[in-house]
Write a structure and sequence with these properties.
Elements: E1 4-13, E2 16-21, E3 32-33, E4 36-38, H1 45-57, E5 61-74, E6 77-88, E7 100-104, H2 119-126
Parallel strand pairs: 1-6
Antiparallel strand pairs: 1-2, 1-4, 2-3, 2-7, 5-6
Bound molecules: 8-OXO-guanosine-5'-triphosphate.
InterPro entries: MutT-like, Nudix_hydrolase, NUDIX_hydrolase-like_dom_sf, NUDIX_hydrolase_CS, NUDIX_hydrolase_dom
Cofactor: Mg(2+)
Organism: Desulfuromonas versatilis
């Protein structure tokens, strides 16, 4: 099986890095993650991130450099996560498809239940 290709946004503000919590009824419900989602056919990672951030948070973003790439096997299958530095183009966020969102100072990231695949990203952010 090919891994699921997933994009994730690293968005920084003066108060921290943006985390979102997965809604009830989704895989890994209640866990925290970086906003983003699965790459759709024909889409570039940048297009995917812009679409997902609008769908989930009504947040327009500018997509920058790759921050980290992670391959991880869950018991249900593998993911290839492409994490990009992104810049929020609005201050307003709406929790459209997430349970909640939070701006988390890097040193507090280890206190959150973040998806296992994101561990290398969290390490790099807290380093
Ligand atoms: N968005 C996001 N997904 C992640 C991260 N880390 C991680 O393991 N994943 C996994 O990657 C997959 C992304 O799927 P998703 O359900 O968020 O994507 P989506 O919005 O396109 O899905 P849907 O439209 O089917 O609901 C999930 O299985 C999720 O568990 C992360 O930091 N951000």
């Amino acid at each position: 099986m090919q891994p699921l290709i997933v994009t994730a946004a690293i968005i920084r503000s003066q108060t921290g890095i943006l985390l979102t919590r997965r809604p009830e009824g989704s895989r890994h419900a209640g866990m925290w993650e970086f906003p983003g989602g699965k790459l759709e056919p024909g889409e570039s990672p940048e297009q995917c991130l812009r679409r997902e951030l609008l769908e989930e948070l009504d947040l327009p973003v500018e997509v920058g450099q790759v921050f980290e790439v992670v391959y991880h096997r869950y018991d249900w299958g593998a993911v290839l996560i492409l994490a990009y530095e992104c810049r929020a183009l609005s201050r307003r966020i709406r929790n459209l498809e997430v349970a909640e969102h939070r701006w988390v100072p890097p040193k507090e990231l280890p206190e959150y239940d973040i998806l296992a695949a994101d561990a290398p990203i969290v390490r790099k952010l807290t380093f």
